[in-house]
Amino acid sequence: MIKRRDFLVRGACFSAAMWAGLPFRYVRGSEADAPLRILFFTDVHSMLEKAVPEKLRETAKLISETPFDLVIGGGDFVHGGFQSTREAMKPRFQIAADFLGWIGHPVEAVLGNHDMVGVRPDDGSEPESDTTADFRALTGVSELWRRFDRNGYRIFILQSIQPVSTAERYHGRIADEQLIWLKTELENTPRNMPLIVCTHIPFRTTFIQAKEGPNVALAPNLVVQNANDVLTLFENHRLILVLQGHLHVNESIRWNQTEFLMGGAVSGSWWNGPNLGTPAGFGIVALGDPNRAFWEYQSIDAS
Question: For an engineered disulfide with 268, which of 56, 182, 241, 302 has Cβ 3.0 to 4.6 Å away?
């Protein structure tokens, strides 16, 4: 487990490095204050097994001691909800609730595929009529897609999980209803306002090419299939950052003015150590330069 002192000592050169356009190291103090500092964690996969509750207590302590202005949770707060009954998921939701309580700060939550309960139960029982009720109760979220403003930035939370009847169980997609809502929101958003989008399933990733080869196509449950339709809506706006989860890797892609950051996973490889070279962890993104996002990934011991 990374120690708090190491986390801060390693941050000694944040201010100079950030403004030089280099990867930053975080430090407390007004001299290093950025207009917005987001702590982004994702893919917690809360469960009883593998001493996960104890590991989450340690992780929450580290998160709570890290300087930030806003915490965003990128989805999959629990493990296995999609194919499980509500009764079976109760202990896992309790662990996730404990984790959020230990953090001790409000968390803006994004829905993940594992957070949906009883969509297609493996035991043959009837699907749940409201598959996101437990997620909403856990996180206090009333709307699965929404927007809010913080420190001069406008942040859009999107719902990217669409259940299907095929073997993949779900596809990555932003539903038409959300696209209509987003179009209206952007029509009422100043063109020069810096914007952030949060999605569980990624819009942009090289995950499968890195894993299997440069010519391999992404499956429909690994990427948002209509991502280009979404991003086209932002063409005349300043989309600075897209925060993504789902694939448990630490990845940064810059396309024109936008940084696409995938936040690794608190659980690493589902609590079995690193995933494809990415250790368990979370990140801090600092938005100081009005056109750039600076990302630092902090690993933790989740083995």
Answer: 302
**Residue 23 maps to a domain:** no
Task: Give one DSSP letter per residue of 246-283, joined into a string.
Answer: SS--EEEEEETTEEEEEE--TTTTTSSS-BTTBPSEEE
- The two counts, helices (H) then strands (E), for the chain are 8, 13
Integer Cα distance of 115 and 133 in angstroms: 10
Burial of 122 (0-12, 13-18, 19+ CB in 10 A): exposed
Q: Is residue 25 part of a domain?
A: no
Strand partners, 199: 244
Residue showing tokens 């595929």 = 113
Which tens digits make up the pLDDT trace of 124-170?
A: 999 999 999 999 999 999 999 999 999 999 999 999 999 999 999 99
CATH of the domain at 281: 3.60.21.10
Average pLDDT, the chain: 89
Can you name the residues that pair with 252 across neighbouring β-strands? 261
Sign of the torsion angle spanned by Cα atoms 63, 141, 248, 295: negative
CA-CA-CA-CA torsion sign (101, 102, 106, 112): negative
Number of domains in the chain: 1
> Distance (Å, rounded) from C-alpha 217 to C-alpha 202?
14
Instruction: Work out the end-to-end distance of the chain between its first and last CA atoms, rounded to an integer number of angstroms.
Output: 10
Does a structural domain hold residue 24? no
- Reported as type and span, the H/E element at residue 211 is helix 207-212
Inside any domain, residue 30: no
pLDDT at 44 over 90: yes
Three-class DSSP category at 186: helix
- Residue span of the structural domain in which 294 resides: 4-18+35-299
